[in-house]
User: Fold these one by one.
Assistant:
Number 1:
Amino acid sequence: MAMFSFLATGIKKYYDIGETLGKGSFAVVKKGTPKEGGPAVAIKVVDKKDAQFDEASLQQEIMIMKKVSHPNCIKMHEVFDEKLKMYIVLELVCGGELFDRIINKGHYSEQDAAHCIHDVTGAIAYLHSMGVVHRDLKPENLLYASDQPSDSDYETIKVADFGLAKIVQGGKEGDGSMTTTCGTPGYVAPEVLEQNAGGYGPEVDCWSIGVILYI
Ligand code: PIT
């Protein structure tokens, strides 16, 4: 059973914060090493003084991540809410983004693509069953678990960045539908871009998975 602590201060008492791993939505993600020993973590650092900072949407992201427990989704461990910064302690993965893997590999086989999409559809089916729509699926938000792939075992992918995720009730029907235009051009479903239409539902994630599969 997962436990979450929301500590008011003092992440530096518990973790050494190291190198930058990447950039999420409106934040930087750094490597963290627990002072008391134990496995390293990823720490999403959000600057509350940043013009982009939106307390309500960060609280929503944290609320969603608290519920998420799936082998193909990055897990949240704990949150440190300090005066100037919010620190979200996350599961560490070291394999880098799918985006870079496709670029660097030169070739990306159908088998690689099948494994990748298997993991992503598993994660998204789970999220949808919980009423969570990701809304920003793209190769930059799909992370390889390991940078030391073994030959026997295929490489696990994990979905990251729940910064645009939203909870919907009852799929696309009724008041559960969404109207906010968001996401990343190129991966976003047409109905998300059609602002005057009748809203959209969880299937917008399936559109993005289709574009990712094609790439
Ligand atoms: C890692 C390694 C890495 C990036 C991340 C995690 C980012 C994860 C993440 C970012 C978010 C979010 C959830 C997870 O909402 O290079 O282990 O903005």
Note: The first helix runs from residue 55 to 67.
Number 2:
Amino acid sequence: MKIAILSLQGAFIEHARILQRLGAETFEIRQASDWDRQKDALVIPGGESTVILKLLHELNLFQSVRRAIAGGLPVFGTCAGLILLSRHLLNPRSPYERIGTMDITTCRNAYGRQLGSFFTVHDFKGAGHPLPMSFIRAPYIEKVGDGVEVLAEVDGHIVAARQGNQLVTAFHPELNDETFIHQLFVDMVRESVSSKRGSDIGK
Ligand code: GLN
């Protein structure tokens, strides 16, 4: 399984380490030519959403990335990645078009300046035990559309969700020594790879 990691800015190295520990092969997307490599999934890391978005457009990656995700390429967006995948944003700042493939309404920097960064341990659907969650100037999801499954809520705010092949967290699971959420993503990717294989055989 090959997982591409958008590596234009932000916390991408940490995702690679965890995914490799879980047996996936990873590679970095830094320019348009990297996108041509065969891949089974994409990670959009945390960082600064306005910077990542600007670079996606300037490097001519935006359309290919959006098309692939809209076409079903599994994607895991953390923090800024969640913002880029959000169909609606309550407080946008970038003039650039977002990827917008996930039916969620998001509030950027939702915890204000003082509470911008915090750590908590909280329940996550299916984990069976509370997970560590590091929030760094994080967004939260204000509203989800039909077909979006809420995976975690902290203090009444949605902080993790899934819609089909798209998984998002407002916090940074790659910064803690806990692999549950990355394993969930790897399982999603495995399922998508085997269902693709099934439909190829049927051709
Ligand atoms: N506040 C950042 C933004 O708006 C997101 C922070 C993060 O990814 N840790 O893009």
Note: Residues 46-49, 79-80, 83, 108-109, 136-137 surround glutamine (CB under 6 Å).
Number 3:
Amino acid sequence: MRSALNETSPDHIALIDGDRHFTYSDLARRIDGLAGGLLAGAADLEEARVAFLIPASVEYVTALHGVWRAGGIAIPLNVAATEPEWEHCLTSAGVTRLLTTEANRESIEKLCERLSIPLALVDEVAAELPVTLPELAPERRAMIVFTSGTTSKPKGAVTTHGNIAAQISTLIDAWAWQSEDVIPLFLPLHHVHGIINVLSCALWAGATVHVMPKLDLDQLCRQVADDVFTVFMAVPTIYVKLIDYLEMLDDEEATLVCDGFANMRLNVSGSAACPVEVFEDWRRLTGQVLLERYGMTEIGMALSNPYVGERRPGYVGQPLPDVSVQLIDEAGAVVTKEDTPGEIRIKSPTVFREYWGNSDATTSSFKDGWFCTGDIAVIEDGYYRIMGRSSVDIIKSGGYKLSALEIENKLLAHPEIAEVAVVGVADRTWGEAVAAVVVLKGGYDMTLASLKSWCEGELSPYKIPKHLKVVDSLPRNAMGKVMKPSLKTLFD
Ligand code: MCA
Ligand code: AMP
């Protein structure tokens, strides 16, 4: 199958990483070198799991494509995660090798030693070129992305080379990607939004990506004001942060940045619901009509407002080409009428193959060949609108999907906590913010600050509760189940 790296303009700039510029042929050389180094004379990595802990950079791109080209399964790790979280990914996926950079080596080398996983620096694993690389059939497994859900531990969603090609090519067509495009990449690279929608689409199209290790609004807006970018993709939280930032700037500076956004050909929002207010504020400030779309780790992108045509605030548009969508009502019947809600189910070449090592979870997430998303939607006047999720245990904070159960399990290890329930509460910036309701063991007292500091090193920073309520008991129904919806009102 075709390489995920564009081969038509070898001298075009593919990646700008700080002061370093890399053409498509520079990248191809690095990737082939790493693939050859990983193979070390073998013909094919035969789906060996190779994880990497690398921030957005040329080294990240080399690792991702290098593992693919050598026939391995790429597992991008969250650079901001904690050791127990990395350990779960490495052990549950049976990782046999880990790639990192000098700057990140120290944070993970002890864990690798303990788990007997060989660790190498990307730059040190290069073979002399030319190398012979394996032919990769589309059904071969290519990547595992860990995603939180209704289980306490994140599950590894496996996509094949064919799934990834389908996820990319559908967006190339739908959003008119072209080699003249230039896009900033500040999203985390352990999730589909950053990996596929931004990085992989750009490199497939022959476009240019500016990689940034993290979101830096000053630097980003300076470049926007200089008209560096043609396309911009972000989660709603980032649009909220940009709106606040623009409102802080003096008029002259704000106008330059707003004009920079206005001059782009496309601004996309996704990963969480974009509030209508944000959509309207963005249009008022920049003149850009945000294109909102809907996707999921397991399915790539499924629904999108049109590139050409009306983009409706509060709606996620229609199915992308080759994506079949069904809404299923509570009785299990296919919804045939507009204005009737149902669970979104998807059938498409973009849908993942399985959860790694978890056939029960894989089987139960499909019904009659359709992937069950757990998201509820309705069609109104031809446009899909997401109404919410079927599970109260999933929280969307700043675009990250968090499992309330995972956070509760961790908090239960706190020596002073007897019982805990975690819920998401509405938040202007984060969409939902993590809130913990705890019952303490006798005689103890707890502040949010002390809970936060206990969580450090245990949970990724974005999973740490932002609100805390200490109560005498948790409200439970006749079955003994905590009534979570009623807990949300404690934070009104
Ligand atoms: C940072 N913090 C957060 C979050 N991010 N708290 C809750 N939720 C978050 N998402 C906290 C930090 O722990 C810190 O807390 C404080 O906010 C400032 O941290 P900082 O790192 O400076 O924040 P930031 O750089 O402004 O990060 C915000 C962000 C980031 C850029 C919006 O969260 C982000 O990149 N989100 C995107 C996630 C994403 O790509 N999701 C896609 C998955 P303290 O001050 O207490 O230390 S969904 C997906 O892939 C599907 C397929 C799809 O549809 O797209
Ligand atoms: P993840 O599993 O991290 O890939 O997150 C996917 C989830 O994000 C979906 O199941 C939805 O709940 C949510 N999501 C993504 N895009 C949107 C959107 N435009 N509006 C509402 N929810 C969204």
Note: The chain has a mean pLDDT of 97.
